[in-house]
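Hi U.,

Before I forget, here's the chain from the pilot set. I'm dumping it here mostly so it's searchable later in email.
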Amino acid sequence: MSALKRVRCTGPGISRRRQGRGFTYVHPNGQGVRDDETLARIRSLAIPPAWRDVWICPEARGHLQAVGTDGAGRKQYLYHDAWRARRDRQKFDRVLRLARRLPAMRKVCDRDIASRGLSRERALAGAIRLLDLGFFRIGSEAYTEENGSYGLATLRRSHVRVSGDEVRFDFAAKGGQRRIQTIQDPALARLTGSLLRRKGGGRELLAFREGKTWRDVRSEDINAYLKDLAEEEISAKDFRTWHATVLMAALLASQEEGLTSVTSRKRVVSTVVKAVAEALGNTPAVCRASYIDPRVIERFLNGETIDLPRGRDLTDDRTRAAVESAVLDLLDPEGAQRAA
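Structure:
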């Protein structure tokens, strides 16, 4: 197989034109696309009919195969399967590096959350703890303004209630779906209570005091703090990816007993993907394609899984750390040995 070629969508490309109920395709020189191989490649891209201003790569080995603007006015990209597979491998390897650093990162966050006052460090440590425990999307101010849905950085005080050690969230998540989530964590409950009771600042939950001024925690603040903690280019989305992978591995392990065929294992995979998707607030297709490390599923179909701690609460911090360590061993045993 020949190597992929880097291309730019600003260069000459095949265009798409509406024709009756379908489309016709035109080469950069104005001639219609007639050859079956190119037409088959274009059809295989499954470019959504609603896209406009569609650009299609004239080369089959171009790393970027198509670009268009969706109904919401956002530019969308379709990449070559081999390019996407390579990027996915890089992403999941980066997430494993994050997972190895999590114990040290959590110690710093625990220290900052336990501090006094509502400093920038304490507010950001609380944000990371919420990412770590709650599968939150990070959200953005622009997305909230445009769509009326919320992520971690844009949650409002009205979305949150604290009762004892329990923090309850009730808000409109991506796609307008109502999301109700409860987290049990004493230190986080104390911090959240302080944020709710503060006298100044705006409607947002996450804020910190800088001198006499209240400042909201922005999504870029959270990602910058994450990079400082991890000493690596990681993002809040990497947290969701890691936790989806761990949850998938744990649920598969809980269903391991009595499975005698690949067919029965595939059925379990399908069921568990739906459960993980529900926890993340994604569709099963998006969850499997973007968040669950495919090696967890591959290992399970080959009869490999993790050993779950018996008779212990999987939400307990120590137990959760043991499960995460087992997942690291499953996915990258050589890396786990190097880190030991």
